[in-house]
Specification:
- This is Polyisoprenoid-binding protein.
- Pfam families: YceI.
- Keywords: Signal.
- The chain is α+β, with helices and mostly antiparallel strands.
- Helices cover 16% and strands 45% of the residues.
- The protein is built from two helices and ten strands; from the N terminus they run H-E-E-E-E-E-H-E-E-E-E-E.
- The protein has an eight-stranded antiparallel beta barrel.
- The chain is globular, with a radius of gyration of 21 Å.
């Protein structure tokens, strides 16, 4: 009975501790746009990803992602239209969790990473669409081709990261591109031309 009592108490303590920890974690970042500090931010690459999804012959919607982004964000919530975003993504980082496919995507038939190692996005216009949303239009350069792209963006939250003490702001964004317009035409239309982008962006305020 004593052992069972202690076991039950330990379980209850663990549940309470977990609940408190989750509550504390949820309170780290604020979704309130007014909590965002004006200034220039640097991409936090470890928690920034560019995901992509396209149809695989109509059988499935297949996804992968790029990591290792770098760049900067200049933002003032009071003057959102003046926001400036400049991001570079190493195409070599492409990851579909299938090594053979990753190697194929890096080849000259697809992204040709030896010739075009980076993709870039530079904003040209930012328009507020809601309390915590905006459309960011900019020039996307991929595979040596530059085309305008609009990203529908939502503020996820901002606050001081308790681990590195850096003030951080995070966004999520979505957009669609036609890969053939960027010269990536392999297997179109058998493999989908329209590519949906899903972006998780984290930025750290520079002191």
């Amino acid at each position: 009975m004593i052992k069972r009592h202690f076991a039950t108490s330990d379980l209850m303590a663990a549940v309470v501790f977990s609940t408190v920890s989750q509550a504390s974690a949820q309170q780290v970042a604020s979704p309130d746009p007014s909590a965002v500090k004006a200034g220039t931010y640097k991409v936090e690459p470890y928690h920034t990803q560019v995901g992509f999804t396209l149809s695989h012959m109509g059988f499935s919607n297949f996804s992968g992602f790029f990591t290792g982004a770098s760049g900067s964000l200049t933002i003032d919530p009071a003057h959102l239209s003046a926001t400036s975003l400049d991001v570079t993504i190493p195409v070599q980082s492409v990851d579909t969790t299938v090594p053979k496919l990753d190697a194929e995507l890096k080849s000259a038939q697809w992204f040709d990473v030896d010739k075009f190692p980076n993709a870039t996005f530079r904003s040209t216009r930012v328009v507020r669409t809601g309390a915590n949303t905006a459309n960011i239009t900019g020039n996307l350069t991929l595979h040596g081709v530059t085309k305008p792209v609009t990203l529908k963006t939502r503020l996820v939250g901002s606050g001081t990261n308790p681990l590195d003490k850096m003030f951080t702001v995070g966004f999520e964004a979505t957009g669609t591109i036609a890969r053939s317009q960027f010269g990536v035409k392999q297997y179109v239309p058998l493999v989908g031309d329209d590519v949906t982008l899903t972006i998780a962006g984290a930025f750290e305020l520079q002191q």
